[in-house]
């Protein structure tokens, strides 16, 4: 293929994609929409039943999804936002850009059940530090071990730009409370780097740049299923794990409202939920689906789950982020 | 004088430029709630960021200049094989896309890079060290070329006298060169200081976390992740304030510079060079070469790998080449048009009683944009577009305009000396025969084309390498080559990124040569 023909076919593609009348635009984060994420499978399953085009717009992080629609305001072409999480829900509601959904969420299996007018959860998991059991003889047993062991090289994500990073912020807060700044300072002394997103940090860890990295309890399942590798393990946390629930919402000014509603309902159906475990490497949120691979069921289930009330998170998030910034840059 | 009919197009160019810049800043400020700014004043993090921004900008500017002075002196006095090639390399390293240079620097100094394997332990790249390495890489060559320009101000008679008196290089430097160089230093310092103060991609990639952050990165954070327009306005005003203060201080301290640059190379008179001078020349040239060349070599190494040839067949690469070109070429032309508008106005009043001072003011208008972060311009323009009811699909035009504006100071620097010189030599003829407007351009074309080509080439290459503005609108319909590269590097697919970097730098070299030779003609100063 000549250079010219590649360029023109690409142009033609981009024009046809935006010109299609019956298109659902879903804003999501990059790894969800990537070839190795659940995006392509979901697109296929949904398009089979809706007779439409499902167009994923991949943004560089989950927090980026929200700021992008805020920038676009009422002019936005987005129908559905997919990939916000529990802890930015309040902030997202305050923008006034979201519409209420009509989906029945009574069967959702998140801790404490689900009732929210705006958001539908699509997967869940628990934050955990991952280590290489062949390289690390004495893995940490608790969050305190991770924070205080000065020989442990740690990588975690920036709470301003990444939802795992924000998760760790809340995890630290629920374990340390008032003493969190001091704990951050202790941790910062043996931190290799604070990465912008989950993928950056995790790749650095796999290259051997750190002993532990902030990720999810389900990350080892990825290595077992996709690579047949069982040396990566999630460190236990005796204080309890902090959960993440990823959510979707539709927009008030969605150009294609009917399709958006149809997609919101589709999120809790098997066509979506079956792709979550081995696509996004998280637990599904409903029960009426295929059995999970053994790698998932063999992971230790958290005995204790910590959560801060959503309103407290919303009120104090900025303050806590500043606390973190202040403690780690001192 | 300025009201003449033939200057009207120039006024239009200037007005459009000023209007767009003002509208963008005003739009962002309209979302500011100064009542809430009190909380930022007490925020220790912002003060730490400001302190770090100032500190790294000061260090970058000083190191660049301290190395550049002896290098320039050596390049002026000595002729050796590869001198012209080195000057060309310096011209290119000024405009090499930031992301590509960063990649080269990571390959040389990264955790598993050349420096680490030579030293046997990990080189501490991430943080201040990495930022300084990158900033000096970009700005030392710029300083060398600008100092070399001031050498052309030295009258030939002074060199002849120095030669007759048997002055050594050291004495000549102290008695002659330094008097000219020191006049250009304040402006040079200010330019490099401002470029580094508002550095973005370098700090984001090599800073290694929140500890080393600049105000520009904080503005990016506020816009991209917090979507706090009020905070972004506060930070941008702070940035503008700091830059203005620094500029005023520097100009207050600097002596008056008489603009009389001759762009014709004079006669070179050899001076006595002591062993000490030779030693100095050799060591400082080695330092400069070691700083600039390894990253370039590192950038080109993937060309021998199989992955590089596979990369050439990835459609996404060519799509991003196309997006890059359709942004960079119009942006370059726009920048040149606006710069020529400013230049026409400035030369019309230069050396005329009473209005002479306006010439400098016009030039400063063009440089004003150095103080305003590109992201602020971009977001402001976006808000203006939104208010007018034009959607995100027009992000393209915003990127083009903002890139054109950001390149303006560099274009002005490239074209002003030549245009002033034309004015000085032919003003009376023009006045006598009433030659104005485009007729002048036709007459001057042969003597100006090389400078104009250089200006256009700078603007095109700077826009081609832009990452700040396009990153704000990052959408899959507007992934430029640097953006694509940033995505690859950001996800640590360094090897594939390295191959894309080769494509990008070859594209840059081709455009640079094409514009300079094609438009600039045979006498092109590359």
Task: Describe what this molecule looks like in 3D.
Chain B: Residues 50-250, 321-515 form the ABC transmembrane type-1 domain. Chain B: The complex is composed of two ATP-binding proteins (ThiQ), two transmembrane proteins (ThiP) and a solute-binding protein (ThiB). Chain B: GO terms for molecular function: transmembrane transporter activity. Chain B: InterPro entries: MetI-like, MetI-like_sf, ThiP_ABC_transpt. Chain B: The chain crosses the membrane at residues 12-32, 52-75, 87-110, 122-144, 188-207, 232-251, 282-304, 324-345, 365-384, 396-416, 455-474, 494-515. The complex is a heterodimer of chains A (330) and B (526). With 330 residues, chain A is an alpha/beta fold. Chain A has 2 domains: 11-124 and 245-297, D-Maltodextrin-Binding Protein, domain 2 (3-Layer(aba) Sandwich); 125-243 and 301-328, 3-Layer(aba) Sandwich (D-Maltodextrin-Binding Protein, domain 2). Chain A has helices spanning 3-19, 30-33, 39-50, 62-72, 89-94, 143-148, 163-176, 180-188, 198-206, 219-227, 257-266, 270-279, 294-297, 310-328; strands spanning 23-29, 53-59, 80-85, 98-99, 120-132, 154-157, 191-195, 212-216, 232-234, 243-251. In chain A, strands 1, 2, 3, 4, 5, 6, 7, 8, 9 and 10 form a 10-stranded mixed β-sheet that branches. In chain A, α7 crosses α14 and α8 (180-188) packs across α14 (310-328). Helix content of chain A is 42%, strand content 18%. Chain B has 526 residues and is mainly alpha-helical. Chain B has a single domain (7-31, 44-519), classed as MetI-like (MetI-like fold), CATH 1.10.3720. Chain B has helices at residues 8-29, 38-41, 44-77, 83-95, 98-109, 114-119, 128-151, 156-164, 169-197, 201-206, 215-226, 229-253, 275-300, 306-311, 315-349, 356-367, 374-387, 395-433, 438-464, 468-472, 481-490, 494-519. The mean pLDDT of chain B is 85. Chains A and B meet through α1, β2, α4, β7 and α9 of A and α3, α11, α15 and α17 of B.
């Amino acid at each position: 293929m000549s250079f010219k023909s590649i360029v023109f076919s690409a142009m033609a593609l981009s024009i046809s994609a935006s010109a299609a009348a019956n298109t659902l635009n879903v804003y999501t984060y990059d790894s969800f929409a990537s070839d190795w994420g659940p995006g392509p499978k979901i697109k296929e399953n949904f398009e089979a039943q809706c007779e439409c085009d499902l167009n994923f717009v991949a943004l560089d992080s989950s927090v980026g999804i929200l700021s992008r629609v805020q920038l676009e305001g009422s002019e936005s072409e987005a129908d559905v936002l997919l990939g916000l999480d529990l802890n930015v829900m309040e902030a997202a509601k305050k923008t006034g850009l979201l519409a209420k959904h009509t989906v029945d969420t009574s069967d959702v299996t998140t801790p404490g059940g689900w009732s929210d007018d705006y958001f539908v959860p699509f997967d869940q998991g628990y934050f955990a530090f991952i280590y290489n059991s062949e390289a690390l003889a004495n893995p940490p047993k608790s969050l305190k071990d991770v924070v205080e062991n000065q020989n442990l090289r740690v990588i975690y994500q920036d709470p301003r730009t990444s939802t795992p990073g924000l998760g760790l912020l809340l995890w630290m807060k629920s374990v340390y409370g008032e003493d969190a700044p001091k704990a951050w300072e202790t941790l910062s002394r043996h931190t290799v780097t604070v990465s912008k997103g989950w993928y950056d940090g995790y790749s650095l860890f796999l290259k051997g740049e750190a002993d532990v990295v902030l990720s999810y309890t389900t990350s080892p399942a990825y290595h077992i299923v996709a690579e047949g590798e069982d040396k990566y393990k999630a460190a236990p946390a005796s204080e309890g794990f902090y959960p993440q629930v990823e959510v979707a919402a539709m927009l008030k000014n969605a150009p294609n409202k009917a399709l958006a509603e149809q997609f919101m309902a589709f999120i809790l159906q098997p066509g979506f939920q079956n792709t979550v475990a081995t696509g996004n490497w998280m637990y599904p949120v409903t029960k009426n689906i295929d059995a999970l691979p053994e790698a998932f069921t063999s992971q230790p289930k958290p005995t204790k789950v910590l959560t801060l009330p959503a309103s407290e998170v919303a009120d104090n998030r900025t303050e806590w982020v500043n606390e973190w910034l202040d403690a780690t840059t001192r | 004088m300025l009201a003449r009919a033939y200057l009207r197009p120039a006024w239009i160019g200037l007005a459009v430029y000023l209007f767009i810049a003002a509208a963008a800043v005003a739009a962002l400020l309209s979302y500011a709630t100064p009542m809430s700014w009190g909380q930022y004043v007490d925020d220790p993090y912002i003060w730490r960021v400001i302190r770090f921004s100032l500190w790294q900008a000061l260090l970058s500017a000083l190191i660049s200049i301290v190395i550049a002075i002896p290098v320039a002196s050596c390049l002026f006095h000595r002729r050796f094989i590869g001198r012209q090639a080195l000057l060309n390399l310096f011209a290119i390293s000024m405009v090499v896309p930031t992301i590509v240079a960063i990649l080269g620097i990571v390959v040389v100094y990264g955790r598993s890079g050349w420096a680490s394997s030579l030293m046997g332990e990990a080189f501490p790249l991430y943080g201040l060290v990495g930022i300084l390495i990158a900033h000096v890489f970009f700005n030392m060559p710029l300083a060398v070329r600008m100092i070399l320009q001031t050498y052309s101000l030295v009258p030939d008679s002074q060199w002849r006298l120095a030669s007759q008196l048997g002055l050594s290089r050291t004495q000549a430097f102290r008695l002659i060169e330094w008097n000219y160089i020191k006049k250009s230093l304040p402006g040079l310092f200010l330019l490099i200081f401002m470029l580094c103060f508002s550095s973005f991609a370098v700090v984001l990639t090599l800073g290694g976390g929140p500890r080393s952050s600049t105000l520009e990165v904080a503005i990016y954070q506020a816009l991209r992740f917090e979507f706090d327009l009020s905070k972004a306005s506060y930070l941008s005003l702070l940035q503008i304030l700091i830059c203005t203060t620094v500029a005023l201080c520097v100009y207050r301290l600097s002596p008056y510079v008489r603009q009389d640059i001759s762009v014709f190379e004079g006669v070179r008179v050899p001076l006595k060079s002591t062993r000490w001078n030779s030693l100095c020349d050799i060591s400082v040239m080695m330092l400069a070469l070691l700083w600039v060349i390894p990253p370039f070599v590192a950038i080109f190494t993937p060309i021998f790998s199989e992955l590089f040839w596979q990369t050439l067949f990835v459609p996404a690469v060519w799509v991003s080449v196309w997006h890059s070109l359709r942004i960079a070429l119009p942006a370059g032309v726009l920048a040149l048009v606006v710069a020529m508008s400013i230049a026409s106005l400035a030369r019309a009043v230069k050396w005329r009683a009473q209005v002479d001072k306006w010439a400098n003011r016009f030039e400063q208008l063009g440089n004003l944009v150095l103080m305003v972060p590109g992201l602020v311009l971009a977001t402001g323009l976006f808000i203006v577009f939104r208010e007018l009811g034009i959607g995100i699909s027009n992000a393209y035009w915003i990127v083009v305009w903002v890139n054109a504006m950001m390149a303006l100071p560099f274009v002005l620097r490239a074209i002003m000396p030549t245009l002033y010189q034309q004015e000085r030599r032919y003003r009376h003829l023009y006045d006598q025969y009433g030659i104005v407007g485009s007729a002048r351009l036709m007459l001057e074309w042969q003597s100006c084309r090389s400078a104009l080509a250089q200006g256009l080439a700078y603007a095109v290459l700077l826009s081609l390498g832009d990452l700040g503005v396009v990153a704000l609108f990052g959408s899959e319909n507007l992934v430029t080559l640097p953006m694509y590269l940033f995505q690859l590097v950001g996800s640590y697919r360094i090897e594939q990124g390295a191959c894309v970097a080769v494509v990008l730098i070859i594209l840059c070299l081709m455009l640079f040569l094409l514009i300079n030779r094609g438009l600039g003609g045979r006498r092109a100063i590359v």
